[in-house]
């Protein structure tokens, strides 16, 4: 669009200049050796043209120079500012609630009901990047659309769009993602990259027909979402030492489990960052994911594409031919993938994967159900990590709070004597009492006793009981410990692990 604009201005300038030169040649044949012969017509009109045409020439020449100058100026401006309003700068140490509030206000000021799709997209992306948004939802309504950002796992209302802006935005998205423009009655997805002021943002687009029009969800996979490190996970010193130990093993499988949005992928990316640092050039990292949530600079990430016959199993097989030593399998949910992953884990590969289960111990029964032999599972497994996310108390305004009678009953005698906290609300947390989230972990390490037990395919409860004896801190206790440290409230602890 901007290129076209610049080119057309340059063409306009060039044509104006050439018209000027032609007129010059006709009127003043002797000037500059242009050499056109005087014609009778020119001679007849020479009296009038001698007065008027130099003025025309000057005007045309000036217009040409001006057009060239404005074309050059347009070309030198950054891509997104030529047509789209810029969001005002934010203070760099603003908390997330403050950044969200400022971004909402800036987007409201930048857009009007007649804003074009291009302007809307530029402004939304700029805002999404500064709020470290993972997904932008554009939900059609009878009036237009509601835009929400998923930030830190929570959906945050951002702005409303007019019907005209929504139509223009949907068209713009189809153009940049190279989708079928006229199709609006079938799901479509694609990916693209666009410039924002901080660099280039990578996006995956999903369009789905709804009763009010096509709903668009944009996932930001690159810029704006810093790749997490293990330090970001808020692991206790003990848990961190455990994870470090698992990641130092040359082979075996490390499982992560938890509901959707429990931060499993964040943990895996944090672990990969650690592996990259601790092993340097010896970390050949490959992944098969669905979807790729973040772009990692030093890993070969492959997206599942079932339409092209690329699923977890076939992707994993292909990855194994590429000589990696660290492999991420986005999810093990079928016998074929489980079988290949186990073989890989027994033959010199460190595998990080997720399995859907209710607890760390529940992972093993899921894999047994997929047909993995108990003795093989016992040999290949390193550890299983179950995790949940709790809202993190704002450190600026948290205050001690005694447990209620009901909470004290659930805590039992020992924990009820501890101090817990609540969020009061202040400017930094936008009055909510919370800033960001913290992860709570249940980490089951395969001790010799657990390995021995796993060979007999025990029940999940029997494994959990044994794990507790062997030193695993169960999720409930880990969540209560998190509350006792003042990281979160008891309500949050019970919500995720009650
Ligand atoms: Zn606060």
Provide a descriptive summary of the structure in words.
The chain has three domains: 2-77, no CATH class; 96-220, 2-Layer Sandwich (Beta-Lactamase); 230-497, P-loop containing nucleotide triphosphate hydrolases (Rossmann fold). The chain is of the alpha/beta class. The protein contains 17 helices and 15 strands. The relative contact order is 0.07. The radius of gyration is 31 Å and the shape is globular. The protein has a seven-stranded mixed sheet, sandwiched between helices. It has a six-stranded antiparallel sheet with strand order 3-2-1-6-5-4. The protein has a two-stranded antiparallel ribbon with strand order 13-14. The protein binds zinc ion.
List the helices and strands and how they pair.
Blueprint: H1 2-27, H2 40-44, H3 46-76, H4 96-110, H5 117-130, E1 133-140, E2 144-151, E3 154-162, H6 163-176, E4 188-196, E5 199-210, E6 213-220, H7 237-247, E7 252-257, H8 264-279, E8 285-289, E9 299-303, H9 312-320, E10 326-329, H10 335-346, E11 350-354, H11 362-369, H12 374-380, E12 381-393, E13 398-401, H13 405-415, E14 420-423, E15 434-445, H14 448-454, H15 460-469, H16 475-484, H17 490-497
Parallel strand pairs: 7-11, 7-12, 8-9, 8-10, 10-11
Antiparallel strand pairs: 1-2, 1-6, 2-3, 4-5, 5-6, 12-15, 13-14
Helix pairs in contact: 1-3, 4-5, 5-6, 9-10, 12-14, 16-17
Zinc ion (ZN) binds next to loops.
